[in-house]
């Protein structure tokens, strides 16, 4: 690894997982604002927390720890596909693909067998999961279904908040399905 790569390599946040999560929402890698705050989706213009507020009551106005408590009580877990990478700025398109290191999903799925569905926050997260994670998963974890949802990022401005919200309702439905 070059000195420049060491200086610009970023590492993601730890997973947010409750006692018996049912769904896992995956981003690609937190943006600069999220990494600086050590909080998922910290950029106020990101639609993630407003959507989670409507779906689960995890409103952006709540303190971050409380938002996480509300989500985990709703059986929702959060993480990212990547554990680290080189990425100048916050855009997924800027990720140096030769620098990608994926998170340990075999471990996560083994530790939390109640996970039944993966939702990708945008196409890039889904693409990276399918390329860097899925081929390394054991048979049980590889069979957990995944669905790609519209990115909540403000960079994905082609959809309105209402359109994004309508697509994301499936997360609440999946979290509430009985075993």
Q: How would you describe the overall organization of this protein?
A:
This protein is of the alpha/beta class and 179 residues long. It has one domain: Uracil-DNA Glycosylase, subunit E. Helix content is 39%, strand content 19%. The protein has eight helices and seven strands. Helix 3 crosses helix 8. The radius of gyration is 16 Å and the shape is globular. Residues 1-6 have low confidence and may be disordered.
Structural key phrases:
179 residues; alpha/beta; Uracil-DNA Glycosylase, subunit E; 3-stranded antiparallel sheet; globular
Topology:
Layout: H1 3-8, E1 9-11, E2 23-27, H2 32-37, H3 48-56, H4 64-73, E3 76-80, E4 82-86, E5 96-102, H5 105-111, E6 117-121, H6 123-133, H7 139-142, E7 146-149, H8 161-176
Based on the structure given, which CATH architecture is correct? 3-Layer(aba) Sandwich
Count of distinct strands: 7
Question: The CATH topology, please?
Answer: Uracil-DNA Glycosylase, subunit E
Q: What is the CATH homologous superfamily assignment?
A: Uracil-DNA glycosylase-like domain
Task: Give the end-to-end Cα distance, rounded to a whole number of Å.
Answer: 46 Å
Order of helices and strands: HEEHHHEEEHEHHEH
Q: Which strands sit side by side, in order, in the main sheet?
A: 3-2-6-7
Summarize the model shown.
The chain has 179 residues and is of the alpha/beta class. 39% of the residues lie in helices and 19% in strands.
